[in-house]
Amino acid sequence: MALADLFAQNVIVRWLTGNRRRYDLAVSMVGVKLGERVLQLGGDDPGLLAALGAKVGYTGRACAVDAGAEAAVRVRVAAERAGVLVETFTARYDHLPFDPASFDVVVIRPGGSLGSAETLGHAAQEATRVLRPGGRCLVVAGGGRGRLAASETERFIQIAGAAGLRGARVLAHRDGWLFVEAMKAATA
Questions:
Q1: pLDDT at position 93, please?
Q2: Which residues contact 83 (CB under 8 A, 6 or more apart)?
Q3: What is the number of alpha carbons within 13 Å of residue 133 lying toward its C-beta?
Q4: What is the mean pLDDT of the chain?
Q5: E-assigned strands of 49-156?
Q6: What is the CATH classification number for the domain harbouring 62?
């Protein structure tokens, strides 16, 4: 096979899988490991879950919930392009279709159907329910489109505290991304 053919295939592969490097910072900040169970709630950009699904591998579990069926299809297509296994669900954020303590990490992606403070509050309460004791909940906002306002940061911290999550803090506010982390108490 000629070098030009290899180059052409590489370009096609990169086009099919998307720009994974865009999510390197987010995947690093979320901190999932091979074999863990991760749930993403909302988000109009399905690429992050595909990147997280690649990180947890086939021994882990990567799930997405969105209120709209179109968003679930976008997540599924992005995961297929990336070659990762991701489960998608269409459900309301105030009633997630999972048992208590089903996940190690829950990622909340505000925006779209998860944009209002009330909806974010419901999502944070359900995230608390489906997290295992000692599990982490992260609000991951942005994605390279400019800085978010400081008031947004405070709003996320307040919502996490109201949902019963502990130790809410800003992990980073970098390159247009905002990462707010909180934990579920280690004992129920």
A1: 92
A2: 17, 54
A3: 4
A4: 82
A5: 61-66, 87-90, 103-108, 131-142
A6: 3.40.50.150
d(CA 41, CA 63): 9
Confidence of residue 11 (pLDDT cuts 50, 70, 90): very low
In a domain, 94, yes or no: yes
The letter for the amino acid at 104 is D
Is 9's pLDDT higher than 70?
no
In a domain, 144, yes or no: yes
Contact between residue 32 and residue 9 where contact means Cβ atoms under 8 Å apart: no
Q: What is the DSSP letter of 168?
A: E
Residue range of the domain that includes 112? 21-183
Do the domain assignments include residue 110?
Answer: yes
Exposed, middle or buried: residue 81 (CB in 10 Å: 0-12, 13-18, 19+)? middle
Note whether residue 143 is domain-resident: yes
* pLDDT tens-place string over residues 43-91: 667 788 888 999 998 899 999 998 888 888 888 888 888 888 889 899 9
Domain count, the chain: 1
Total Cβ atoms within 10 A of residue 55: 20
Top-confidence range, 40-44, 103-107, 112-116, 169-173: 103-107
CB 166 within 8 A of CB 185: yes
